[in-house]
Amino acid sequence: MTELQNDRFLKALCREPVDMTPVWMMRQAGRYLPEYRKTRAEAGDFLTLCKTPDLACEVTMQPLRRYDLDAAILFSDILTIPDAMGLGLYFEQGEGPKFSKPITRAADIDGLFIPEMDEELGYVMAAVSVIRRELDGKVPLIGFSGSPWTLATYMVEGGGTKDFAKVKGMMYDRPDLMHKLLDKLADTVTVYLNAQIACGAQAVQIFDTWGGILTPQDYKEFSLQYMQRIVENLTKENEGRKVPSIVFTKNGHCWIEDIANIGCDAVGLDWTVDIGEVRKRVGDKVALQGNMDPTVLYAQPERIRKEVASILESYGSGNGHVFNLGHGIQQNVNPDHAGAFINAVHELSKPYHQE
Fold this sequence. Notes:
Elements: H1 8-13, H2 34-43, H3 46-51, H4 53-66, E1 72-73, H5 80-87, E2 89-92, E3 96-99, H6 106-110, H7 122-135, E4 141-146, H8 148-157, H9 165-173, H10 175-199, E5 203-208, H11 216-232, E6 237-238, E7 241-242, E8 245-249, H12 256-260, E9 266-268, H13 275-282, E10 287-289, H14 301-315, E11 321-322, H15 335-349
Parallel strand pairs: 1-4, 4-5, 5-8, 8-9, 9-10, 10-11
Antiparallel strand pairs: 2-3, 6-7
């Protein structure tokens, strides 16, 4: 077991003292980097990139070679689970992910199985192991999964959607079927994340991208309760150290207190809330991750620096803050602006951690 050279990210998630606020970016390995685009072209297609462990490792490492980041995140996709369950994932140019066998009836749900992690999803576990070796203790590695509700959304819709008619139609008309699907997905996500931890992931994040489209009551019934079940059954310690969990619901500001109560170590925030106000709401129950608007990175470095300063000031002094964007970095951002963002977080946050 290689000792971590930089563990401020894990310490912050556990609300322990750090010398400066740690920072990473959602989608930090992505299309805004020319080296990523080159590797993606060499792979031939996105799924090949995801399913080839050495290539997944390469793109995971690329942003760490450029920037002083405090964590790496596994390069993969949230839709690996429904693909492994037999739905036939493919990507259409300009249209995003599609499934050749979407969920449309009870028999489709009955036919789903929890995939074997070392078989159908063995390429993910191999990537985690390869990345950990390549990191060699530089920074911790984050594993992740989509939430059951978010995965179900893609599985029922057959891909991306703007109106969510099919998945909400099933939820309202046949809640029994929706719960049956979410049950299977919760079990699968739990096994999936625990397998990532066993292979070397040192923290895990649940991406609930579409939880924010639900009403307050439906969110608790169809999304939050399943994430709570997952969090409760996650491996809590590995390699002699706690494995923290982060739950991120986009547009989830209505339910911050509810999320904080499910047992996760940190709550991810999008940019639609003031992080200082959220800190007052949750106290020291959880760490907070976020929450700069990703589009600020289109501005010049001076404006980026000003926004970083504002968020740090809002959070205030003390422990428990992981700086991040409020959603993934966008593909047309200037890589130098991302570097300016990361450097500003480290430089400007130091006074907030002096005793």
